[in-house]
């Protein structure tokens, strides 16, 4: 055995001990085995048996508590130790290759040391996480023994004259140093924590994060190996396959990463920099650098190391190919000392197998550093984003609302600031390491190319450098085109939004195609911009693929022609090829980095504010304590402004607002001061319950909206005051919220808050009389007055002035009068008489409790809405979550790629384009392989020619008959064809994407406008709009790019593996386990990645929503002094979004590290197999170079393939969702009669016969009208009244076939409307709806979108509607602008425009569906007058909201639960004391 250990040559002196055992090299090596055997024998039982339960002092959820001093240093030293030991093993094997027999002592001790090194770190890790420090004694003994043994060995080497020229001497010296340092680390742990030999070691507690069971993001807490490989993510990634990832699964952020922590850090940095830097972007950048600069430097360092290690690939390929291409592979015998062989480092590095192993280790390190750099940069960016968002939110909380009301800061601007600008800063931090590392990478790359190829390398590099600005130009153009596309997209979305919001009106007026054409027109402009985007994208893709080919071609052409005896060996050629691939990346990334830097600089800008116009003047009032004060006056007189000024929400020039408990004493003046909220008294005031005129609700539950107790809802339900408030506000549960219901919730919130002061700004505006009375009696008079709370009520309901303790009348921004009602009656008799007249004209509406039928329908509608929110295809995701079998089926479906959606996408492109795309891709990649194969063939012949030249004593290869010309010509032709095909494929991909985008949007739009109203009633508008916005944008811009990347990376990966397998068929054996590993990695990753991407998107929406909600409700929040609650809510949303982003980042790194390591294994296997095949089977060196070059790129290809596959899977969800809408059944637009068969003037008379009519909204729902019969004579005015849910509106919709008329018929002027084409029917009738709808554009367009009416007709209609003076006063007259929703006109004016629109059409039948429900009495009076005069000769059907509006009708129909209860003239019905109509009128009086 000893002979085998020390060798068995006859002349060997390896086991000669005449000079003493320590002077024998073999014995020295045997002595070094002792420490390693000791450690393995001591630790293995402990590791395998375990050490019982954990210390009772430690209670933590995760076994990641790393608390020993010098923890990271120990891991780093251990990694270095293992690397040195691998080198020692390799050195021993290479040295042993020169002897005739095996000398195990040269590498076996190193092998045992390697095992002991791994065991030591595993042993240490388990001791640390389990907190058993006394077991460190074993490691202490091991380090002492190892240090002593290595020191003895090193001393003996020095004594015998062995020096730094021998590699083993250097390795031994390094090992002495490492063992010494590890011993020092161990002693530091023992002394620092008083472990092992000390009686009372100090108690150390785990960090707070590890004691929190909710913290599951462990990257900051795990050891270096787990940090580098994301090992802790294994369980998380694999569990996603069994259970979808949600916020509960990912848990909470660690404290150091939370938005609040980073905000405090940023604020401190800002405060420190304020004295040194001026206000503006410079201050922001300096503060960001101070707060987040340190981790960024770490990321840059990692990037430098990764980039430098990246050059090991080309250099090792050059060395390997150079080594195996040598004719004389014999190396000079190494020197023998102490009876053993010693080799130099030069001899060591000339071994091809050694280079293969070093290449493998270099790749592992390079990929680890690269991913660490990415992670640190992105984590820093995410932390920065959270801090900036919190800072913006705090700034918003202090903004003056008058600036926002003046349009100087919109909700959209704030959302852009939060969603886009903060992300720009985050991505700048991610790309920042590139900014520093790329110049170094370029310089080193060019130097190495020059070393290999000489001056020709500089020419090739110049080609890349010259074309890089072109790439930057293209990238800039892409950015500009994208901006242009975005503008058209915004315009299209605005039009689509208007179309969807007004779809009911458009269908009723048969205008859907007009608006559809308008959207299509904008879409065509957008597509033109998208064509330019596609063109620049294809050029960018083309240049990315073509520039390396052009650079290589130029370089080799110059290299061959510049020298008669040019060295174009495989070693030079393929090393150069790899270097060019490395060099191209930073030059192309430079454009992205520069663009990102510019965007980040723009994003760090800041707002400025201007002053608003005056609103109030000469205001001097006092509000009595514990009384009800009412503020009245005309629209626009400053009532709301008075409340806002009292709350400090308006800017003021002079005067004061004094708060004395519940007292407000104030003098309000012109608002021009910059910060009214800074007024001392206002700041000192307590909370004020405030209900604004425009109801403001949170995107939360009803209870949370009333109580503002986020996360504490159960207590609220048990609260008596909560239940009383709900009762006071008339049972607001189980409703799909209308404006009136929103108003009631807003008032309920004000009533619920326990404040001494309550401000109610026109709370009755959207309520009917019944609800108004209920709220006044139970809410204000009973609840608030009984509690002696001070109430300030702004109202138009003058009948309630009788209940006021104090009245303030306003006019034109000043106080007209104030006092009790009796005081005003005496001091202002004219005003009092005016009020008295208006009081008697108030009426009552009969909306009470929702009947059972409507409740069922509403609940069903709500259920339908919830069902429609599901974004996944029913066929793939319609399963019950609580059924285990079905759940597992869902899990399987989540793991499969949505091939059906992919098929839908590709089939939309058409067969021809698809064929071109497929063929061009296959040809391009075949040609890429052919180019590299020809290079291998060419360079192999160069080597053979050189060998022949040496044999024939030729000084120059060309003189021996070899010429580069033929090879160069073929190479040039192949490269040119490759460049052409690069262009063809890039154009094909982009044009395919463009064709699909065009087809899918066109089909979707046309399907939506023809869809029945039921779709819009059961599907949230936002959900449909998302199909036109987010999903369309994904199909327009993202899928083509992802498809190109996916197809390219897949084909590159397949071709690379194919080439390696062709060069070394034995690689196929290793490929199988690697392929299986890859399959499982991508399988688990895709599911987790998709969930995390969706989670990141879904957590961003509440964050943006919270910002917009805060801006809209800023006054209410500040009035109630609830800023801390909302800040806390923001921190929750920010942290939720950030932790989803962090987990997604960690998951991406998890994938990339594993793919990179598999790629390194591919390189190792390919290298070893190629070297062996070349040395023993005479494989050509050119093919070895080819195989290794391809192997080097495999990891990148695999990474991109899996990442793009995951992205494509998410993006195809857009196709799936759009396809779901495309399956909608359209309305039946055809009729039994053709358009030509319908008389031109129909209906001329306006006679309506309703015969046995039954109507329902859907085949699955109960009828809403049952067996209705009625006859309306031409020109009659018919009033229809009844309680809510009685079927009034369904009656009106039946005329337009908007509902399912499954029985009976409606005959208008002797034509059954069911036989008419739908477009024709709707175009011949007119309707005015309860909610007035105007569209953005001009007044002319709103009155007559079909552009059929003359100016005279339009002015006549406006005159009849009493709008002519208003329109004439506007710039442009009929062509004056109307903003979206008609917001630049009052509610009453909008309703009058709708009346004018109906008159323009000149239909003989007009339906008014509760048209006066939401307008004031003055406007209602105008409407009644117009209907009775201008529409005197037309049939008018009035759905009555206010009973007095139909007292002058020719006929009254009273409905109840879908049937006609009463049907007669109003006079006849009023004569009957017991008639329902009489009871309605009596109640009204």
From TrEMBL:
InterPro entries: AAA+_ATPase, ABC1_TM_dom, ABC1_TM_sf, ABC_transporter-like_ATP-bd, ABC_transporter-like_CS, ABC_transporter_C-like, ABCC8/9, P-loop_NTPase
Keyword ATP-binding: yes
A cellular component annotation (GO) from this entry: plasma membrane
UniProt-recorded name of the protein: ATP-binding cassette, sub-family C (CFTR/MRP), member 8
Acidic residues bias locations: 871-886
Gene name tied to this protein: abcc8
Entry keywords, A to Z: ATP-binding, Glycoprotein, Membrane, Nucleotide-binding, Receptor, Repeat, Transmembrane, Transmembrane helix, Transport
UniProt source species: Dicentrarchus labrax (European seabass)
A Pfam family the protein falls into: ABC_membrane
Residue ranges annotated for the ABC transmembrane type-1 domain, each copy included: 297-599, 916-1209
Entry's Gene Ontology BP terms: potassium ion transmembrane transport; response to ATP
UniProt-annotated stretches for the region Disordered: 864-887
């Amino acid at each position: 055995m000893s002979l085998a250990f020390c060798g068995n040559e006859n002349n060997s002196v390896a086991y000669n001990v005449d000079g003493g055992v320590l002077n024998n090299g073999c014995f020295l090596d045997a002595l070094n085995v002792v420490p390693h055997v000791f450690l393995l024998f001591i630790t293995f039982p402990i590791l395998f048996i375990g050490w019982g339960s954990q210390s009772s002092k430690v209670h933590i959820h995760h076994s990641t508590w790393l608390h020993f001093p010098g923890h990271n240093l120990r891991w780093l030293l251990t990694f270095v130790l293992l690397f040195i030991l691998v080198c020692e093993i390799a050195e021993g094997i290479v040295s042993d290759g020169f002897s005739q027999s095996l000398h195990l002592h040269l590498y076996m001790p190193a092998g045992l040391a390697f095992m002991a090194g791994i065991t030591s770190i595993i042993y240490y890790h388990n001791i640390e996480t389990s907190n058993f420090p006394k077991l460190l004694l074993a490691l202490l003994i091991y380090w002492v023994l190892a240090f002593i043994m290595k020191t003895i060995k090193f001393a003996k080497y020095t004594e015998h004259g062995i020096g730094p020229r021998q590699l083993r001497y250097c390795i031994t010296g390094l090992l002495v140093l490492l063992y010494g340092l590890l011993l020092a680390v161990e002693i530091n742990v023992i002394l620092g924590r008083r472990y092992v030999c000390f009686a009372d070691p100090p108690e150390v507690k785990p960090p707070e994060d590890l004691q929190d069971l909710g913290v599951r993001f462990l990257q900051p807490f795990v050891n270096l190996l787990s940090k580098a490989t994301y090992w802790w993510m294994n369980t998380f990634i694999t569990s996603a396959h069994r259970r979808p990832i949600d916020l509960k699964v990912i848990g909470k952020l660690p404290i150091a990463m939370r938005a609040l922590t980073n905000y405090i850090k940023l604020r401190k940095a800002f405060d420190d920099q304020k004295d040194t830097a001026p206000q503006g972007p410079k201050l922001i950048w300096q503060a960001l650098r101070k707060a987040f600069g340190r981790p960024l430097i770490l990321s840059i360092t990692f990037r430098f190391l990764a980039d430098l290690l990246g050059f090991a690939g080309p250099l090792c390929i050059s060395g390997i190919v150079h080594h195996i291409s040598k004719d004389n592979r014999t190396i000079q015998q190494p020197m023998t000392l102490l009876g053993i062989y010693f080799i130099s480092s030069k001899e060591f590095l000339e071994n091809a197998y050694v280079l293969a192993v070093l290449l493998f280790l270099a790749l592992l390190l390079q990929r680890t550093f690269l991913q660490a750099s990415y992670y640190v940069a992105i984590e820093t960016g995410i932390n920065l984003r959270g801090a900036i968002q919190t800072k913006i939110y705090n700034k918003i909380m202090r903004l003056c609302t008058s600036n926002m009301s003046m349009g100087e800061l919109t909700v959209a601007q704030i959302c852009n600031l939060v969603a886009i600008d903060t992300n720009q800063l985050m991505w700048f931090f991610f790309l920042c390491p590139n900014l520093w590392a790329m110049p170094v990478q370029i310089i080193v790359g060019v130097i190495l190319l020059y070393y290999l190829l000489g001056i020709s390398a500089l020419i090739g590099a110049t080609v890349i450098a010259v074309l890089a600005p072109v790439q930057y130009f293209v990238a800039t153009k892409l950015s500009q085109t994208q901006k242009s596309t975005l503008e058209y997209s915004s315009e299209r979305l605005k039009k689509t939004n208007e179309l969807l919001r007004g779809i009911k009106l458009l269908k009723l007026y048969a205008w859907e195609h007009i608006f559809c054409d308008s959207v299509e027109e904008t879409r065509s402009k957008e597509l033109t911009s998208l064509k330019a985007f596609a063109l620049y994208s294809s050029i960018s893709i083309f240049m990315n693929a073509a520039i390396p080919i052009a650079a290589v071609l130029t370089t080799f052409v110059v290299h061959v022609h510049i020298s008669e005896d040019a060295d174009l060996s495989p070693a030079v050629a393929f090393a150069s090829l790899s270097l060019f691939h490395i060099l191209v990346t930073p030059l192309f990334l430079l454009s992205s980095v520069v663009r990102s830097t510019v965007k980040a600089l723009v994003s760090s800008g800041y707002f400025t504010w201007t002053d608003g116009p005056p609103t109030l003047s000469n205001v001097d009032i006092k509000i009595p304590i514990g009384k009800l004060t009412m503020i009245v006056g005309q629209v626009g007189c400053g009532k709301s402004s008075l409340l806002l000024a009292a709350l400090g929400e308006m800017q003021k020039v002079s005067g004061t607002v004094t708060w004395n408990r519940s007292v407000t004493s104030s003098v309000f003046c012109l608002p021009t001061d910059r910060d009214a909220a800074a007024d001392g008294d206002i700041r000192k005031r307590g909370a004020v319950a405030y209900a604004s005129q425009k109801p403001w609700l949170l995107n939360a539950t009803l209870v949370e909206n009333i109580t503002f107790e986020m996360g504490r809802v159960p207590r609220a339900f048990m609260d008596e005051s909560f239940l009383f408030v709900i009762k006071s506000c008339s049972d607001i549960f189980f409703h799909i919220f209308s404006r009136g219901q929103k108003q009631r919730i807003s008032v309920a919130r004000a009533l619920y808050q326990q404040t001494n002061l309550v401000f109610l700004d026109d709370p009755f505006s959207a309520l009917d009389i019944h609800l108004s009375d209920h709220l006044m009696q139970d809410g204000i008079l009973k609840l608030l007055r009984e509690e002696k709370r001070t109430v300030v009520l702004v109202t138009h309901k003058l009948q309630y002035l009788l209940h006021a303790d104090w009245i303030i009348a306003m006019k034109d921004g000043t106080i007209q009068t104030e006092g009790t009602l009796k005081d005003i009656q005496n001091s202002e008799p004219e005003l009092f008489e005016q009020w008295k007249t208006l009081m008697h004209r108030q009426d009552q509406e009969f909306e009470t409790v929702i009947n059972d039928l409507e409740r069922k329908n509403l609940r069903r509608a709500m259920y339908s809405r919830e069902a429609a929110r599901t974004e996944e295809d029913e066929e793939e995701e319609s399963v019950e979550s609580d059924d285990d079998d079905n759940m597992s089926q869902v899990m399987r479906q989540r793991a499969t790629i949505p091939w059906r959606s992919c098929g839908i996408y590709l089939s939309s492109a058409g067969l021809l384009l698809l064929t071109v795309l497929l063929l061009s891709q296959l040809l391009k990649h075949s040609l890429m392989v052919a180019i590299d194969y020809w290079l291998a063939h060419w360079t192999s012949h160069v080597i053979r020619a050189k060998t022949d030249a040496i044999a024939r004593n030729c000084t120059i290869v060309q003189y021996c008959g070899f010429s580069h010309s033929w090879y160069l010509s073929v190479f040039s032709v192949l490269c040119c064809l490759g460049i052409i095909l690069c262009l063809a494929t890039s154009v094909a991909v982009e044009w395919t994407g463009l064709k699909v985008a065009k087809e899918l949007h066109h089909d979707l739009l046309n399907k939506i406008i023809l869809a029945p109203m039921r779709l819009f009633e059961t599907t949230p508008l936002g959900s449909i709009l998302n199909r036109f916005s987010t999903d369309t944008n994904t199909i327009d811009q993202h899928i083509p790019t992802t498809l190109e990347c996916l197809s390219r990376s897949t084909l590159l990966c397949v071709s690379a593996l194919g080439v390696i397998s062709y060069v070394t068929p034995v690689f196929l054996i290793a490929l199988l386990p690697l392929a299986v590993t890859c399959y499982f990695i991508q399988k688990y990753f895709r599911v987790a990645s998709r969930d995390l991407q969706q989670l990141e998107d879904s957590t961003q929406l509440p964050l943006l929503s919270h910002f917009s909600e805060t801006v809209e409700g800023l006054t209410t929040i500040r009035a109630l002094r609830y800023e801390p609650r909302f800040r806390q809510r923001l921190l929750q949303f920010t942290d939720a979004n950030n932790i989803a982003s962090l987990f997604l980042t960690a998951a991406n790194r998890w994938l990339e590290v594993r793919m990179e390591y598999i790629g390194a294994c591919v390189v190792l296997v390919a290298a070893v197999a190629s070297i062996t095949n070349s040395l023993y089977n005479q494989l050509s060196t050119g093919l070895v170079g080819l195989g290794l070059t391809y192997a080097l790129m495999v990891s990148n290809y695999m990474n991109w393939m899996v990442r793009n596959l995951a992205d494509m899977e998410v993006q195809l969800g857009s196709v799936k969702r759009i396809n779901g809408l495309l399956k909608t059944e359209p309305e039946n637009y055809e009729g039994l009669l053709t358009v030509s068969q319908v008389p031109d003037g129909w209906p001329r008379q306006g006679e309506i016969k309703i015969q046995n009519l039954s109507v329902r909204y859907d085949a699955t729902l109960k009828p809403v009208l049952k067996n209705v019969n009625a006859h309306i004579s031409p020109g009659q005015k018919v009033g229809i009244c009844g309680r809510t849910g009685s079927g009034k509106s369904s009656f009106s919709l039946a005329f337009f076939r908007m509902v399912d008329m499954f029985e009976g018929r409606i005959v208008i002027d002797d034509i059954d409307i069911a036989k008419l084409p739908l477009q024709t029917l709707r175009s011949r009738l007119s309707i005015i709806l309860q909610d007035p709808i105007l569209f953005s554009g001009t007044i002319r367009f709103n009155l007559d979108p079909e552009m059929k009416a003359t100016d005279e007709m339009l002015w006549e209609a406006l005159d009849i509607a009493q709008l002519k003076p208003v329109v004439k006063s506007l710039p442009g007259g009929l062509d004056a602008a109307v903003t979206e929703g008609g917001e630049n006109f009052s509610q009453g004016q909008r309703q009058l425009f709708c009346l004018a629109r109906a008159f323009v059409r000149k239909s003989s039948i007009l339906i008014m569906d509760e048209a006066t429900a939401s307008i004031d009495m003055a406007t209602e009076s105008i409407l009644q007058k117009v209907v009775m005069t201008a529409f005197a000769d037309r049939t008018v059907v009035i759905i009555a909201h206010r009973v007095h509006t139909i007292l002058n009708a020719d006929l009254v129909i009273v409905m109840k639960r879908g049937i006609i209860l009463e049907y007669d003239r109003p006079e006849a019905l009023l004569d009957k004391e017991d008639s329902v109509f009489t009871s309605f009128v009596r109640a009204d009086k």
